Hints:
By secondary structure, the chain is an alpha/beta fold. The chain has helices at 11-20, 25-36, 50-59, 132-146, 165-175, 196-205, 220-226, 229-232, 235-249, 267-277, 302-314, 335-343, and strands at 4-5, 60-61, 66-72, 79-84, 90-98, 101-105, 109-111, 126-129, 150-155, 188-192, 210-214, 253-259, 282-288, 319-321.
Amino acid sequence: MEKLDIASMTLPELETLFAGLGQPKFRAKQTYKWLRCGVTDFDQMTDLPLTLRDTLRERALIRGVRIVRRLVSKIDGTVKYLYALHDGETVESVLMHYEHGYTVCISTQVGCRMGCSFCASGIDGLKRNLTASEMLAQVFTAGQDNDIRVSNVVLMGMGEPLDNFENSLRFLQLVTAEEGLHIGMRHISLSTSGVVTGIQRLKEYNLPITLSVSLHAPNDTIRSSIMPVNRKWGVEPLLSACKEYQSVTTRRISFEYALIDGVNDSDDCAFELAHRLKGLLCHVNLIPANPVNENSFQKPDHKKILHFQALLAANGINATIRRTLGADINASCGQLRRHAERLV
Ligand code: SAH
Ligand code: SF4
């Protein structure tokens, strides 16, 4: 029998489990608190009777992550982790230090099935979804390893969070729980490649997180050529879903735009993008595309990036160029895992 993924459970779920074990409600609460603090072993739950700890160990597993590799940037201290999961699969996380605190970028899936042509995470497709506890463990482990308090979380590592909707939502619920890390929803960003049905579902929860949409192109011709998801949901339906999302949540949407030399960086692209985004409360993040070994994409030179930004600004769209953190350790996700796979 597969062991219960106990650290993914909410308090009411634990209470039901404990009732079934003939245990009082307060034991569920005690256990919940330990799990929310990132314990990795039932023996750390020192206020539980030994017999209960044994019962829990028999039936449940606390899914943690083990650090396999740890790369520290000499430029800015960014730390990139390759973590092993309980079944030997691996995922990546990145810990970044900004003026306002520490941000952890977590993975939501092992691999990804969206197949964007510029991205290393999707090259071998999707292996499996991560559970909420495996997402949480990435945050705990980065915090504990550096003895710091994590203040922000971004779901921007490997995987498509809206393709693992329930677990990503459960993670949001657990990482914001006051018994644990208590990270404010406003300090969390979720990035999607444009899974329209997922955006529509997320809208119903009206969470004050930041929705980040990886747009990367202003029209279907270019977007479909680099992002297969666009063949299912084109730019028009995607932007309508964003508008509806915004009308419910009143939150500013962040659009990611990875500039790829000769693909999506022309003046026409800038004009078309500005035109398409007009009227949406949004912000554009320009990211110089990160070259990946498996493809031939290059980033434009810096002058061209500044020019693209200026064209957007002249047409009423606020855009910033993303500061590159961890440039010397290849901090964008998916690449370390692929490198490690080649080594083994
Ligand atoms: N699957 C989600 C979240 C993870 S990817 C999504 O696609 O939004 C996180 C971000 O990194 C996305 O904006 C993605 O488009 C971007 N990205 C992936 N590979 C990249 C590369 N080689 N260079 C620049 N950005 C990249
Ligand atoms: Fe998946 Fe995002 Fe990479 Fe596209 S960019 S393959 S959606 S992880």
